[in-house]
Amino acid sequence: KYDQSTTHLNVSIDYFNNDQAVNITFANQVLTMNPYSLKYSVNISQYSFSSSLNTLQVVLSASLESDESDECSSIQTGNTVESESEFIKMQVNDHSLYGRFIKRGIVDGRIGSISNTPLNTEFKSTSSKSQTHIGITVPHYKRMVQLDPDFSVLIDNKAATVDSPNSICAVKSKSKLTGAQIAGIVIGCVAFATIAVICVVYYFYKKKKGAQFLKNMNNKLENMQ
């Protein structure tokens, strides 16, 4: 039988509103914080494990949403070589939420290995919303665990498409004329109508001139008789 003590989870957020990247150190690992990034410091107090072989999984949720309907969303995961961390990238159109999860934490005052697993099956993303759960698994500990994930919003050069990893795209609606196209068609119709009027006027003008010419010729012939 194990102790039924209360576990406290404390989360603090640091916002890096610098115009340039800043280096920080966590668990003897140097991390580069990009401008306008969010760094989460997660402290978890003691937890009543039933066995020293058990682990604890901390679940974070993250989402990125757009108010546009004709969008594509995608989710991509992988490993970064330079910081020995795992990342998750959620993208909607050309906006991305980039989450970085290092593979170490501070466990009972010592540096320990942790694992990070995307749990995107828990959420149902749509074409305008990309969302997921991230499971951070920590080993057995007695007093406290410190974790240090971070997130940043990026503008991508390439928008999400049907070819993006794990993409969900809206069914494109039937093509509608834009205001510029409608204006172009109206201008074209007006121009065509103007040309048509000019042609008609010119036609009647020529016809009238021709009739006048024939009348004058007939008068001259009659005078010669």
Write a concise keyword list for the protein shown above.
15 strands, about 40% strand, alpha+beta, 1 helix, about 220 residues, ten-stranded antiparallel β-sheet, three-stranded antiparallel β-sheet, 2 domains
- Helical percentage: 10-25%
Q: Which shape, going by the Cα principal axes? A: globular
What is the succession of H and E elements? EEEEEEEEEEEEEEEH
Give the count of structural domains: 2
pLDDT average, as an integer?
77
Give the strand tally.
Answer: 15
The first-to-last residue Cα distance is 140 Å
Unreliable spans are: 181-190, 192-204
Largest sheet: 10 strands, antiparallel
In terms of structural class, how would the helical and strand content be classed?
Answer: alpha+beta
Gyration radius, in Å: 36 Å
> How many DSSP H or I helices?
1
How much β-strand is present in the residues? 35-45%
Write a brief structural summary.
This protein is of the alpha+beta class. The protein has one helix and 15 strands, in the order E-E-E-E-E-E-E-E-E-E-E-E-E-E-E-H.
